[in-house]
Every structure is written in structure tokens, then in C-alpha cells.
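Subject: mismatched residue count in predicted assembly?

I count 105 residues in my input, but I want to confirm that the predicted structure covers every chain. Input:
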Amino acid sequence: MRILIICTLLFGMRFTTLAQSVPAPVKAVFDKYSCGSCHVLDKRMVGPSWRELSAKKYSPKKMAKLIREPKPENWPNFPPMAPITHISDAEVRVVADWLGRLQKI
Ligand code: HEC
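Triage response: the counts match. Full output below for your records.
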């Protein structure tokens, strides 16, 4: 009986972390460009949280433009983000698709 309870707890925890963690392809982009040092899922760090960014509902095209030429006026109270000009359209799409799905999680 005790083992059953422990298994249930472990399983439950696993599912919680899975739902909240960043999928591997998205994480790869974040790691490559260190996005994670300024943006995290649910907390304001140097930049807005991914949830706040997801609420803006940017298209991949719009997001690519904003990452390459950030508009700090969109985010009063934050320091300006440094432009990341070498990120590819495919990489931005991976991030934008995930942000789109994040609204439902
Ligand atoms: C050095 C810190 C830093 C890094 C690294 C960084 N950001 Fe930002 N980001 C910010 C800040 C601060 C803002 C808000 C001010 C601004 O938009 O200039 C922001 C804003 C944004 C916005 C919103 C733009 C808008 O106008 O609404 C997006 C989208 C974004 N970041 C995505 C990314 C992605 C994707 C990466 C990695 C490829 C990344 N950021 C890396 C600090 C950072």
C-alpha cells in the first residue's frame, strides 16, 4: 500500500514538471542565445516572463522582427533588450509556436 502511494506521488510530480518544463527543441534555442538568463516561465526577471510574452500573441514573423529589432517602448519599466540579429526564422518559429501553446497550459 505504501509503495502504491509513493508511486502515485512520484507519477503526479513527474506530470507536473513535464507540463511546466520547456520542450527540448525550445530549450535548445533558449540555450543557444541565452534567452533564459533574462526570460523565465512565470517570473519577471531582466525581461518579461514567457507567459506575459505569450499573452501578446505575436505571429512568428512579428516576433522575429521584435527579437532582431526590439521595441523597448512595448515594455515600459524594463531595460531595452539587446537585438539578437543572428537568430533564424526557423528558430523563432519554434519559440513562437510554443508561446502560442503556452496560453492553453
Ligand atoms: C539580456 C537579457 C535578454 C536576453 C538574453 C533576451 N531578452 Fe528578450 N527581452 C529582454 C527585455 C528586457 C525585454 C523587454 C524590453 C524590450 O522589449 O526591449 C525583452 C523582450 C522580449 C520580447 C518582446 C518584444 C516586444 O516588443 O514585445 C520577446 C518576444 C523576447 N524578448 C524574446 C526573446 C528571445 C526569444 C530571446 C532569445 C533568443 C531573448 N528574448 C533574449 C531581455 C532579454
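The pocket of heme C is lined by residues 33-35, 37-39, 46-48, 53, 56, 63, 66-67, 70-72, 74-75, 78-82, 84, 87, 95 (CB under 6 Å). Marking this ticket as 'not a bug'.
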